[in-house]
Structure prediction request, 254 residues.
Amino acid sequence: MKAVMSSEWLKLRSLPSTYQAMGAAALMVVLGMAWTFYVSGLADQRGSLRAAAPEEGFLPLVQISLSVLGVLAITNEYSTGMIRTSLIVVPSRSTLLLAKTIIVGLVTLVAANVILLLTYSVSRLIADGHSLGFNTTPLTDDLPILLASGLSVTALALVGLGLGTAVRSTAAAVGSVVAVLFVLPGVVNYLPPPWNSRIATFLLPNLVPQMAGERLSTRLGDGLLSPWAALAVLVAYPVVALAIGHHILRRREA
Prediction:
């Protein structure tokens, strides 16, 4: 297993798309700086300003960027035919997918948390001395939401890996991740109450604040999940996607 993981790590870091996805995710730091400079100027003019924290406002950028990394970790092999070589070297498809899951999970977890913490630290440093809404709490208070955000990024990357394994198409897998993150929450809004708020509670974008122990917006109610229940639901997303991908991978030819 150690040799398989080393091979998967080598493959992942040898792909140009890995660095492109990482670079796109790291844009959050730059955008966070620009946003902080902008709202700081407005705060100086108005005396105070309520503004969204950049690490929360730009979180979807990191989620999508690193979920693409998860998708490409498997679909690149299908598009190049490398998957046949991988299955010759590692005949056990379960072992191959498990190794990919561990490597993608670790890489995206580390990358997401570094980017989020860096964005948080830089934005607070720039905003120091300005009356901004996101500059009023210490790191210890904001740490739960930062960690929950990092876990959501990792979960989406693994969802991308599972869907990419199932459909073998980069476009289809990325489109499915976008649907989970953006389209499905919009569709649920049109359901009749109280089903719209009940279902919305279990959607991925709303799990992050619940894991951090925060209430959902008034439109969604107070939330039905405890932090641990929200974490369990979050984990269920990649587990289901990977289970589907694993089932299809074992039943078909490369």
Q: What stands out?
A: Residues 93-127 form the longest helix (35 residues).
